[in-house]
Amino acid sequence: MYKKDIILSHAFNRFMSDSIKTTTIDSIANDLHMSKKTIYLLFRTKENLIVEAFRWKLDKMANYGSRVVKMEISVIDKFLKLLRIIQIELKEMTIEGLKGTYRYKDQMNDFLEAYLKGAVFDRFRVLIKCCEQEGFLKSKMDINSMMLMYWETLSSFINARPSGQLMETTLSRPFSEFLNVQLINFFRGFLNEAGIRQFDQALSKDPILQEYYA
Would you kindly state where each structural domain of the chain is located, as residue ranges? Predict the structure, then answer.
């Protein structure tokens, strides 16, 4: 891993687990046993590092997702692989950490929307098509309407704003839990009885995702 990637990876995890406000360039440099000058040579400001860390993380997940949908495996195995990468890559992101990013939304909007449309929405459409080909799709399912509803949900995420007072236990929970629950419920909504049965069986045996099986 290149030095820049090491900095981006560690910075993302620190920003998400310890909060953007309390994480400093000093603390990141100390963790990585490097000078602040080294970091500032690559990133002009802390704000620049925050935005680039998010871009780096989303690019990494998007590249992985692109490889997964091309694999010669069942659609259920593809979906489980995508859920696993969310669980692993976003394990440090808490709801509190996510709230801290909203002040940088304007700088992140373009690549966040591109990620949601390409890496999430378009790949989800491919998975649903695979469900149809493998005989797991509900009959008379209006795929276009369902996907439009899903895109509206994703779009609302871009424009979201933290509101109300969340309980401390909720703020400290990993964001991956919320995202994966949403994706699992949405995916199951497309499946017929045979598909749900096979999906639930695979989910219950997955060492990383079995906690989502109910």
Answer: 55-212
